[in-house]
Each structure stands twice: as structure tokens, then as C-alpha cells.
Design brief:
Layout: H1 5-32, E1 35-47, E2 50-61, H2 64-84, E3 92-94, E4 98-101, E5 117-127, H3 130-139, E6 160-162, H4 166-191, E7 195-203, E8 207-211, E9 219-233
Antiparallel strand pairs: 1-9, 2-5, 2-6, 3-5, 4-5, 7-9, 8-9
Organism: Bacteroides caecicola
Pfam family, one: SIMPL
Protein name: SIMPL domain-containing protein
Length: about 230
């Protein structure tokens, strides 16, 4: 009868070594898969560098020809006012007037209307001279002395402030957000008795630009949240 002691011993040693390698492999895989995902926030307040200011006035009348002449004079008066205050002609645009025939209105009370035509005219200022325009907005009552009443309150014609130099501050904000993310990751690693490793994956996140608050729309809050995955080492 053949003796299988040597073969059995070899098989036992092979199984033992296989078990050691498998255990070591699982351990290495687990170590490699240990990571932490953190978010880093960066915020910055910046002044708006572009403003769009619609100046709106209305005209009433029964004769379109006379209304045309009146609107032309009023436009010239407003443009002259804006130029006197420091704006350039290229920063001023005159929109086509919006005419409503009150007698043609289906639900209008035509018997009570004293005028047939209601004309809305908009002159739009688009400028990077934000501080200058803000001052002019508070001085627009001066146009009353020149016979023009600027209307306000229509949601379509609100003053809009923008910040257009995002690319100038992006690197600084991303650096700050990444730094804040790393600080959070280091704290996590310390609490878990680990050492922080290299970045495995990073997502810059979306930048958002909003008004700081309802009372100061000319000051913008820029915000970005980055997501960073770090490996963890024993």
C-alpha cells in the first residue's frame, strides 16, 4: 500500500500558505479601501461690478404722432441727464416703446378712459460704474424738474447687480475650500487613530453668486463647496 504521508504533508503546508496569502490579501485590500470623504466650504463677499438700471416712464394721449414727439423729447432729456452725471452714450440704450390701445382692450372700461393710448418707454443703463449709478438712482427725482416722472415698482424693470469676475477669485476660493476640507479630514483621521493619506478623488463643486441680503443687492456672496476623498493609513 502506497504511503501518502509526504503528499499529505505537502498538501497541508500548501493549504496553510494559501490561507496566509488570502488573509494578507484581504488585509491589504481592506487597507487600500479605507478612505474618508469630506467637504470644504469657502465664502467671499465681493462688490458687484455691473449694474443694469431700467428707467421707465409712461405717456398718455389720443394722438400717436403727438405722443411720438413727446417721447422723443423725453428720451433726449433723460439721455442728457445721464450724460451730465458721467455716463457714456454706449452705456445707454433706448428700448422700443410699448403701446397699449385702451379702446382695443377687451376687458377695459372704454367709457371711463380719458386717453386712448398708454405708452411705456424704457431707457436702460448698463454700466460697470456701479457706485455712480447707485448715486444716480437716488437722484432720479431730479428728472421731475425736467418734466419726467420715472415710475417704479414693476417687477419687469428692477435694478440688477452682477459680479462678472468669478475667474479672478476662483483659484483662491478653491484653495481655501480644499484647505478646509483637509482640516476636516485630518480631524477625522485623528479621531479614528489613522493617518491621512493622499487625495484619491476631488470634486470642485459649483460656484454660486447671490445677494448678501435683500437690502444690499450690490454686495454679492460667492460660495463654493468642494468634495475631497482622502485615503486613510494605519
Amino acid at each position: 500500500m502506497k504511503n501518502f504521508r509526504i503528499e499529505a504533508a505537502i498538501l497541508a503546508i500548501g493549504l496553510l500558505l494559501l490561507g496566509v496569502f488570502i488573509e494578507k490579501g484581504f488585509s491589504t485590500f481592506a487597507e487600500r479601501d479605507r478612505s474618508v470623504s469630506v467637504k470644504g466650504l469657502a465664502e467671499m463677499e465681493v462688490p458687484a461690478n455691473k449694474v443694469t438700471w431700467p428707467l421707465v416712464y409712461k405717456s398718455l394721449g389720443n394722438d400717436l404722432g403727438a405722443l411720438y414727439d413727446e417721447i422723443k423729447r423725453s428720451n433726449q432729456t433723460i439721455i442728457q441727464f445721464l450724460k451730465e452725471k458721467g455716463l457714456d452714450e454706449k452705456e445707454i440704450s433706448v428700448n422700443a416703446p410699448e403701446i397699449i390701445d385702451l379702446k382695443a382692450e377687451r376687458y377695459g372700461n372704454t367709457q371711463a378712459e380719458n386717453y386712448r393710448y398708454n405708452v411705456t418707454t424704457v431707457i436702460t443703463v448698463t454700466s460697470e460704474k456701479v457706485d455712480l449709478v447707485r448715486g444716480l438712482i437716488s437722484e432720479q427725482g431730479e428728472l421731475l424738474k425736467r418734466g419726467i416722472a420715472i415710475t417704479s415698482g414693476e417687477y419687469r424693470y428692477n435694478v440688477q447687480y452682477e459680479y462678472t469676475d468669478l475667474n479672478k477669485i476662483k483659484p483662491q476660493m478653491i484653495e481655501e475650500a480644499t484647505k478646509n476640507a483637509r482640516e476636516a479630514a485630518k480631524k477625522f483621521a485623528k479621531d479614528s487613530d489613522s493617518e491621512l493619506g493622499k487625495i484619491r478623488h476631488a470634486n470642485q463643486g459649483q460656484f454660486s453668486i447671490n445677494d448678501r441680503d435683500a437690502n444690499t443687492p450690490y454686495i454679492k456672496k460667492v460660495r463654493v463647496v468642494t468634495t475631497v476623498d482622502y485615503s486613510l493609513n494605519n
